Amino acid sequence: MGWWSIRRQADGEQKRIDDDHWNVFLEVQQAHSEWERAYLMFDEAKGQDQIDYAIYILEAAERKYQIHLKHAKSLGLNRAQL
Questions:
Q1: pLDDT of residue 2
Q2: Based on the structure, what is the number of domains in the chain?
Q3: Does a structural domain hold residue 82?
Q4: 81 lies in a domain?
Q5: Which 3-state string (H, E, C) describes the chain?
Q6: ∠18-36-52 over CA atoms, to 5°?
Q7: pLDDT of residue 14
């Protein structure tokens, strides 16, 4: 095994890590967008049924956003990288 194969393995591993970080970034952005849409839905809700549904969707979106942020933090990503 030569130095070039070790280098290629290291490059492949770094690419996989970068891809994972990029996917987490996209998940966080998508969850944030869903949270914003849920907030707008709540803001525009009329009637008790719509309000109840909007609250349910908003709470679910907030939780999903929190989960994705926690995952990003566990990978060592910070706000500047997101």
A1: 56
A2: 1
A3: no
A4: no
A5: CCHHHHHHHHHHHHHHHHHHHHHHHHHHHHHHHHHHHHHHHHHHCCCHHHHHHHHHHHHHHHHHHHHHHHHHHHCCCCCCCC
A6: 130
A7: 76
Using CA atoms of 35, 45, 57, 72 in order, give the dihedral in degrees to the nearest 10.
10
Higher pLDDT, 40 or 14: 40
Domain range holding 12? 2-75
pLDDT value for 13: 75
In a domain, 10, yes or no: yes
Lowest-confidence range among 29-43, 52-66, 68-82?
68-82
**Shortest CA distance to 72 belongs to which of 35, 18, 27, 19?**
27
Cβ(31)–Cβ(65) under 8 Å?
A: yes
In this prediction, residues 66-74 reach a mean pLDDT of 94
